[in-house]
């Protein structure tokens, strides 16, 4: 499976995918790491891992949709089978992502459909939730709104704040994302018109 990863920052989810591959738990090739931020640590991780990188900066484009069109055109040139948004902090124009629906997933740090968008840990705490988590979902034009593939859950404990929650959640995100990408790599997961198909054997 040819995977392109999009990341805007630290890249720990991308690193988790690379580590899963090193452990032999993910049979995939990373054909590209694309970023919108020149200082994204994910770019450094990719260079060290020998993964081709693409940096495209939004300020070089007059319109958001022009940037998105250029970004996905360049990504398509790497011929990926699947796109993984791993901390990619842009809302993607519907036209640019349309060709990828069913082949693009995102990891979001909340128990969707709760807390789409930003500041999810803070919002869960503010709501007095007793549990929090992360979701991997297929990307559609609706922000953080596509079909949820899998979720990981952790309890919110007394004394938790935004930072402790984010810190406890991150390793669980890494496990969740690597497990889902591995299922896709083994062709055991697909988005169909009737929803998500999962199989114990390759589909
Ligand atoms: C993760 O918490 C992810 O759920 C959210 O942004 C963060 C990215 O972290 N979308 P990293 O760049 O993968 O370390």
From TrEMBL:
<comment type="similarity">
    <text>Belongs to the GART family.</text>
</comment>
<feature type="binding site">
    <location>
        <begin position="11"/>
        <end position="13"/>
    </location>
    <ligand>
        <name>N(1)-(5-phospho-beta-D-ribosyl)glycinamide</name>
    </ligand>
</feature>
<dbReference type="GO" id="GO:0005829">
    <property type="term" value="C:cytosol"/>
</dbReference>
<dbReference type="InterPro" id="IPR036477">
    <property type="entry name" value="Formyl_transf_N_sf"/>
</dbReference>
<dbReference type="InterPro" id="IPR002376">
    <property type="entry name" value="Formyl_transf_N"/>
</dbReference>
<comment type="pathway">
    <text>Purine metabolism; IMP biosynthesis via de novo pathway; N(2)-formyl-N(1)-(5-phospho-D-ribosyl)glycinamide from N(1)-(5-phospho-D-ribosyl)glycinamide (10-formyl THF route): step 1/1.</text>
</comment>
<feature type="active site" description="Proton donor">
    <location>
        <position position="108"/>
    </location>
</feature>
<feature type="domain" description="Formyl transferase N-terminal">
    <location>
        <begin position="2"/>
        <end position="181"/>
    </location>
</feature>
<dbReference type="GO" id="GO:0004644">
    <property type="term" value="F:phosphoribosylglycinamide formyltransferase activity"/>
</dbReference>
<dbReference type="InterPro" id="IPR004607">
    <property type="entry name" value="GART"/>
</dbReference>
<protein>
    <recommendedName>
        <fullName>Phosphoribosylglycinamide formyltransferase</fullName>
        <ecNumber>2.1.2.2</ecNumber>
    </recommendedName>
</protein>
<feature type="binding site">
    <location>
        <begin position="89"/>
        <end position="92"/>
    </location>
    <ligand>
        <name>(6R)-10-formyltetrahydrofolate</name>
    </ligand>
</feature>
<dbReference type="GO" id="GO:0006189">
    <property type="term" value="P:'de novo' IMP biosynthetic process"/>
</dbReference>
<keyword id="KW-0808">Transferase</keyword>
<keyword id="KW-0658">Purine biosynthesis</keyword>
<feature type="binding site">
    <location>
        <position position="106"/>
    </location>
    <ligand>
        <name>(6R)-10-formyltetrahydrofolate</name>
    </ligand>
</feature>
<feature type="site" description="Raises pKa of active site His">
    <location>
        <position position="144"/>
    </location>
</feature>
<comment type="function">
    <text>Catalyzes the transfer of a formyl group from 10-formyltetrahydrofolate to 5-phospho-ribosyl-glycinamide (GAR), producing 5-phospho-ribosyl-N-formylglycinamide (FGAR) and tetrahydrofolate.</text>
</comment>
<feature type="binding site">
    <location>
        <position position="64"/>
    </location>
    <ligand>
        <name>(6R)-10-formyltetrahydrofolate</name>
    </ligand>
</feature>
<dbReference type="InterPro" id="IPR001555">
    <property type="entry name" value="GART_AS"/>
</dbReference>
<dbReference type="Pfam" id="PF00551">
    <property type="entry name" value="Formyl_trans_N"/>
</dbReference>
């Amino acid at each position: 499976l040819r995977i392109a990863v999009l990341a805007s920052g630290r890249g720990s989810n991308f690193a988790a995918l690379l580590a899963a591959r090193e452990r032999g738990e993910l049979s995939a090739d990373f054909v590209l790491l694309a970023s919108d931020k020149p200082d994204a640590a994910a770019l450094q991780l990719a260079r060290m891992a020998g993964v081709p990188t693409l940096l495209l900066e939004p300020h070089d484009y007059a319109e958001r949709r022009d940037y998105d069109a250029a970004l996905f055109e360049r990504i398509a040139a790497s011929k990926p089978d699947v796109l993984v948004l791993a901390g990619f902090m842009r809302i993607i124009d519907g036209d640019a992502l349309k060709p990828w629906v069913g082949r693009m997933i995102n990891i979001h740090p909340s128990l969707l459909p709760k807390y789409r968008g930003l500041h999810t840990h803070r919002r869960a705490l503010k709501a007095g939730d007793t549990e929090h988590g992360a979701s991997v979902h297929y990307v559609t034009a609706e922000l953080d709104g596509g079909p949820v593939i899998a979720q990981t859950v952790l309890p919110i404990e007394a004394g938790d704040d935004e930072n402790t929650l984010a810190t406890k959640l991150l390793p669980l995100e890494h496990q969740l994302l690597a497990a889902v990408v591995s299922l896709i790599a083994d062709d055991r997961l697909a988005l169909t018109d009737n929803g998500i198909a999962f199989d114990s054997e390759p589909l």
